[in-house]
């Protein structure tokens, strides 16, 4: 009995060592309808959070999908500390992030700031960049778009403690 188990384990090991590599697949994606919930604990994380948008848009714009961004319905609801990145007075400090958001806005992504959060930070509508819409409530906005069939995406942004080389 022990010899049979040993032979079985050796056979499984041999099969796993000779198994083929992973396969690249091309799912039949449709143009996305997504609403992002941006609620970050540090405005410095905004740049990383924006990569979550890129990670949705860019692969779908490339072959084999070749989707035009104007057919993607993407909303970003902002209501955390990152709200300061959208205030015109902070442009120099967050220039890179603002220009990335402006680029996404030109592709059709809608940026919406929670009016309650704006009030908490002492911002008026006029203090935001021209591609920003101020909505009454982040939560009402998130629920509204989910009821319209939009998938909710909530970026988790962590500060990497090790380099990629160290963790590979």
UniProtKB/TrEMBL annotation:
SUPFAM superfamilies: DsrEFH-like. Residues 1-21 form the signal peptide. Gene3D superfamilies: DsrEFH-like. Pfam families: DsrE (PF02635). Keywords: Signal. InterPro entries: DsrEFH-like (IPR027396), Sulphur_relay_DsrE/F-like (IPR003787). The keyword Zinc does not apply. This is Uncharacterized protein. It comes from endosymbiont of Tevnia jerichonana (vent Tica).
């Amino acid at each position: 009995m022990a010899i049979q188990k040993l032979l079985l384990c050796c056979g499984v090991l041999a099969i796993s060592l000779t198994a083929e590599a992973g396969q690249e697949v091309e799912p039949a994606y449709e143009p996305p309808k997504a609403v992002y919930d941006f609620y970050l604990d540090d405005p410095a994380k905004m740049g990383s959070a924006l990569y979550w948008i890129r990670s949705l848009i860019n692969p779908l714009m490339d072959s084999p999908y070749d989707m035009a961004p104007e057919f993607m319905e993407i909303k970003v609801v902002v209501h955390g500390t990152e709200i300061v990145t959208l205030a015109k007075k902070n442009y120099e400090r967050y220039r890179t992030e603002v220009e990335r958001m402006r680029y996404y806005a030109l592709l059709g992504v809608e940026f919406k700031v929670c009016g309650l959060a704006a009030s908490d930070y002492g911002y008026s509508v006029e203090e935001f960049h021209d591609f920003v819409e101020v909505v009454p409530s982040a939560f009402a906005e998130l629920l509204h778009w989910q009821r319209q069939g939009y998938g909710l995406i909530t970026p988790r942004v962590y500060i990497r403690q090790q380099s990629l080389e160290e963790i590979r």
